Amino acid sequence: MPRARILSESDVICSELRLLSDPEKAKTLLRFFKTGPGEYGEGDRFLGVVAPSVRKVVKSHRDAEEREVLKLLRSEYHEERLTALLILVGQYQRGDGRRRKSIYDLYLANTRYVNNWDLVDLTAPHIVGAHLFGKRPSVLSRLARSSSLWERRIAILATFYFIRQGESEETLRIAEILLHDSHDLIHKAVGWMLREVGKCCSIEAECRFLDAFAAEMPRTMLRYSIERFPEHLKLRYMNKPRRRR
Q1: What is the pLDDT of residues 77-96, one digit of tens each?
Q2: pLDDT digits 0-9 by tens, 92-123
Q3: What DSSP string describes 170-194?
């Protein structure tokens, strides 16, 4: 009689996610995350598992071994990659210095799989930002100049951790590098982080940046950055004469 196959933890996680899957939800997610030809999420596949259910699976497998997490991270399915990344976030937050460095290195070595805006936004501040805070974060400059859309988004989102610690300098530095980026997802991310600088750190620091660059910022970036401003201040920046590059 053939011996029964012993399932690895990554196999168990995949099975659990499939039990929670919804084909109709998967169709909705395909549209929401822009997976069509030429769109930013082209080719991504979805099981149709909602985020709260993913988090329950993550909680049940919070101590999964790195090799099992890596199998999930390299999956073709979005929810399996999300599960892997959220497991890594939890392990980073609970880990000692050596474990944190290992997770940080693994993350940067596998950015090709951190390939949609939700995957970046839920993880980059907690791993890349947390690891670089208090250090010389030159790696963010490299990421900000990358040909990869997702590495550029990782660069600016990582600075969200800095903002939450009350520091805005690195966000403003990376925002300037990304000022003329061509992609709407970067415009939105930079504008969002500038808004958070004003909210959490210093409205004066945000305004100094806008005074210098509002005339050349993409309109989406500018609109996101001034969303919480009083009307008179919004008009001040929206009505600045546009500066040609």
Answers
A1: 999 999 999 999 999 999 99
A2: 999 999 999 999 999 999 999 999 999 999 99
A3: HHHHHHHHTTT---HHHHHHHHHHH
Q: Which fold does the domain 7-119 belong to in CATH?
A: Leucine-rich Repeat Variant (1.25.10)
Q: What are the φ/ψ torsions at residue 77 (nearest 5 degrees)?
A: -95, 130
CB 96 within 8 A of CB 64: no
Alpha helix positions (H), the chain:
9-19, 23-32, 51-60, 66-73, 78-94, 97-109, 117-121, 124, 130-132, 138-144, 149-164, 169-177, 184-196, 203-213, 219-225, 231-238
Answer yes or no: same fold for 7-119 and 123-245: yes
Answer yes or no: pTM beyond 0.70. yes
- Domain 123-245, CATH class in plain words: mainly alpha
Domain boundaries, the chain: 7-119, 123-245
